[in-house]
Amino acid sequence: MHGLPQPTWLDRCIAWFSPKAGYGRMAWREMFRSYDAARHDRLNDGWLATNQRGVVQDRGDRDILRARARDQERNSDIVKSMLKAHVRGVVGSGFTIQAKITKPNGELDEAANRIVEAGWNEFCRARNCDIQGRFSFAKMCRLAVRRLDVDGGVIFIKSYTPGGFVPLVLQPREVDDLDTSYTTQLKNGNYVVDGIEVDKYGKAQAYYFKDYTPDGYTNLESKRVEADRVIYLQDVTRPSQIREITPLASGMSRIRDIDGFIEAANVQARIAACFALVFKKLNPSGSFGRGNAGGTTDSQTGYGGQTITPGMINEGRLGEDVSSVNPPSISTSAKDLLAIQQRLAAAGQGLSYETASRDLSMVNYSSIRQGALDDRDEYKILQDEIIDIFVREVYTSYLISAALVNKLPFSLSELLADKVRYMAHEVIGRGWAWIDPVKEANANKIALETGQDTLANICAQQGRDWRDVVEQRGREIELMKKVGIPISIGGGNNAANAGTQSTAAAG
Question: How far apart are CA 114 and CA 100, in angstroms?
């Protein structure tokens, strides 16, 4: 039977005049609660929750959660393992850009595409894309994933400086740099909320950043940066959120409990590794004379101590009893408990236990493949976000900057006049190796032969450009023909039909 809810202020007022009416009002209200989780009985006692706008609900806890998440990032091996798994799975060695510029007749302009891709690869070097010259573009992508997982967000400012490969450079900034003290309503009707200027619809118009000196100290004034120069990656789950919140918030307490348990187990193991004896005496000796020879006395407790060295042989006195200190071991239960806790912590971040812990002792081919597929789906979600919000934005800005300094096979006016044709591109993310190469290769072969898949898609899943694969394979086949090496493609084993079979295999 469910208990009655806690009385509201109105219930108390009614009960002051009529206890029966007040009690009946509470009982009547409770009778129509359809969800057990909404009841206020003893099972839900202490469960207090409120509904607020996301921008209000997160404001008081954001800095505390971010500070604790960074503390675990520095000190917790469990958090580090999950972060490294996310970075490896989402970015890996980086993203590859395939330019898709077409001629007026609709055919791919291979010459222009090669020039654009070569220029982009040069821009992605650290000395060209980072305003400080420290981070390559691939490193920035990995940094973005890590800061999203820990801080809940990261910011990149597009700056323009002379003397570089192109005028465009990127300036990475942490979310701490947003001036949260600057909150007001402007004369133009916009609001500055937690360092972000938004219009009446909540769309960002500008960002206010703290101005830091190189030694890490901040000035009192903030710097306003227009929104079109800011790339703001953030982890939000509600439309009413304007600022980010760390994704580690839900599992932070559990991870801290795991680390505390491991520390306690280590201390217990160190104590158990120390051999200790306790001497029990019926007639304790005094502090002078022969009775205390060879021992020491603690000045605070007054208890005597005896030093035992390896190989020592000693005789006990009459009335003394010796017993060893052997604390109970908790190592037998630690493995299962840690596995459960780490599985829950990893699941909260969208990862499997095997990926987060690197423990593959309880898997077979089917289970590890299913877990890997689920992990890849999780990686793909964040990968698409990084590509759409960050990589594509930087690439299009690079094209404009490169055209401005005449480093592209088309002018800036041509680019701006037909952006769709000149900015067309495809982003290839990191690929994944096969778990069982034979099974995966046979599956790809069948999919190609039956028309269920394409070579471009299969190569993209492995992080490769299908054109590079076909061209390289063609060069290899020609060289093998030249030196007389037998070729086997598509089931054939002679060099005469190698060219035809390779063309069919390429789709």
Answer: 10
Q: How far is CA 327 from the centre of its chain?
A: 40
Backbone φ and ψ for 197, nearest 5 degrees, come out as -85, 120
Spell out where 43-180 has E strands.
96-99, 153-160, 168-173
Locate 27 and state its tokens.
């009982």
Q: Which of 42-51, 106-115, 301-310, 399-408 has the lowest mean pLDDT?
A: 301-310
* Mean pLDDT (whole number) for 95-114: 90
Tokens of 88: 């490896």
Q: How many other C-beta atoms are found inside a 10 Å radius of the C-beta of residue 304?
A: 17
142-to-83, 93, 136, 154, 254 alpha-carbon distances in Å: 10, 9, 10, 11, 26
CB burial string 63-94: b at 16+ within 10 A, e below: eebbebbbebbeebebbebbbebbbebbbbeb
For the record, the structure tokens of 500 come out as 């035809």
What is the DSSP track for 323-355? EE--PPP-HHHHHHHHHHHHHHHHHHTT--HHH
Site of tokens 């973005």:
144
Q: How high is the pLDDT of residue 292?
A: 44
Question: CA-to-CA distance for 379 and 366, rounded, in angstroms?
Answer: 20
Alpha-helical (H) ranges within 316-450 are: 331-348, 353-357, 365-386, 392-404, 412-417, 419-422, 437-449
- Give the HSE-up count for residue 127: Cα atoms under 13 Å, Cβ half-sphere: 4
Structure tokens at 64: 């505390």
Q: Are 102 and 421 in contact (CB under 8 A)?
A: yes
CB 219 within 8 A of CB 206: no
Question: What letter would DSSP give residue 254?
Answer: H
> Would you give the DSSP letter of residue 162?
T
